Amino acid sequence: MNAIIITAAGGPDVLQIQSRPDPSIGEYQVLIQVKAAGINRPDVLQRKGYYPAPPGAPADIPGLEVSGVIVALGSAVKRWEIGDEVCALVPGGGYAELVAADADVCLPIPTGLSFAEAAALPETIYTVYDNVFRRGGLKQGEHLLVHGGSGGIGSTAIQLAKASGAVVSTTAGSADKCAYCKRLGADIVIDYKKDDFVAVLKDQKVNVILDSIGGDYFEKNIDILAPDGRLVYINAVQGKQVAVDLMRVMQKRIVITGSTLRARDVTFKAQLTREIGAFVWPLIGDLFKPQVYKEFELADAAKAHACMEDGNFFGKLVLTI
Questions:
Q1: Which range of residues forms the domain containing residue 91?
Q2: In this structure, are 145 and 212 located in the same domain?
Q3: What are 215-244's pLDDT values in tens digits?
Q4: pLDDT below 50 — which residues of the chain?
Q5: What share of the chain is helix, strand, coil (3-state, %, to 5)?
Q6: Disulfide-capable partner of 27 in 51, 75, 237, 277 (CB 3.0 to 4.6 Å)?
């Protein structure tokens, strides 16, 4: 098979297409002929040498989400058949013509979606569902603040929170990105390059914050959260070391939590898959639509990574095969 290989830690140019042996599958896995693969910031971190693949995943082939057609079944797989069209969360190896996936972490491609749109679903939906609704406990009528609403995670969080009946505020870094967030349904949109989100939201009751920024946003998040608020971290691109005023946390009874998804075991991901299939999949196409900004051919993975690092895009970038 052809695959995109991280030939060394470095910039986008270290991504090269090479031939590799087809992956083998275990008894509880399926082999997927990949039609499209979503691109995510963890792929960029892996390429730079900061985010190694977990044990058992290809060490030098990035890619955490795919869509495609099942072409082989493990001996214990009962749910799927050869020829089924699925999208799947994978621990790595998605930038390739074939990838092995755990059968219990696959979902059917929703009716009406292209392979590219389906490939943009798993990583962001799993992350948002687990962190906003399970860990953050967002409920109907509550207020969610999403930092970085114009990206893959942000665009997913806005749509799913609105579908659940929440009020949504978000930050974004340009007039175009703010307008995009408004179109997705955000109630309050703040251009963080012009306005301080604490000043804008000081009279709002913010119950849950989804943050990938870290750094000095931490204290601002504590300031803006309502009593019994939940602060959920999924990254810390502006710094992972922060000062904590424990008295303020206690006085407001704030829950500070967060998670990473890639290294979680299959049992956890399978349970998450079942919940997402039951509660999120019925919303797709009506209340939620995957946001694919641009498609790149597999051989152009370096250009796709350069686009992601440039930041001038909305929603998701996808490789097509």
A1: 2-121+262-320
A2: yes
A3: 999 999 999 999 999 999 999 999 999 999
A4: none
A5: 35, 30, 40
A6: 75
